[in-house]
Structure formats: structure tokens, C-alpha cells
């Protein structure tokens, strides 16, 4: 099993059903030393507003999110869902858990 840290749309049950065909079980965690930045992505019907994680100069900046247990096949589905506006990287969360997260590309 892999760990996936979500701070945005992947926390939505509707999106989870769309991407994974099921609802994920997760636990709250935090990513330190990072912040959220606004991002516009062109979609089928125009531009949409999202957020993306970027490193912060302030180590006390915190992003709250949820860690999900996922398979490698699940990660491949998320890679497609997240588009080329994001890249998947490994991070260490406040709990000490190492997880994948999608950051600014």
C-alpha cells in the first residue's frame, strides 16, 4: 500500500467515486513548510480555479489534509486525473508518514 496526502479535490467523495470507483478511508495529517497557491487550469468548458502546494520560506506554514491508503493502480489513476499541471512527489508529513502529494509542476 502507498500513502496519498490530499489537500483538495481528492477529499471529495464524489471525486473519489469518479477516480477510484469507491470511497477512500483516510486520516487527518499536516504538511509543514508548504503553502497553497491559486492555480487556473483550462478544462473542457473554460478555466477553473484550483490550488496547488508549493514550498514555503516559512517552516511554520501548514497545509491540513487527509492521508489515504491507495494502491499503485490508484496512483496511476490520480496521475491522469491531476493532469500535467501537477507533479507527484514524496513528502514527510507531520505524523512522520511518508506520502505522495501532488505539487506545482
UniProtKB/TrEMBL annotation:
Transmembrane segments: none annotated. Residues 4-103 form the Gamma-glutamylcyclotransferase AIG2-like domain. Pfam families: GGACT. This is Gamma-glutamylcyclotransferase. The lineage of its organism: Bacteria, Pseudomonadati, Bacteroidota, Flavobacteriia, Flavobacteriales.
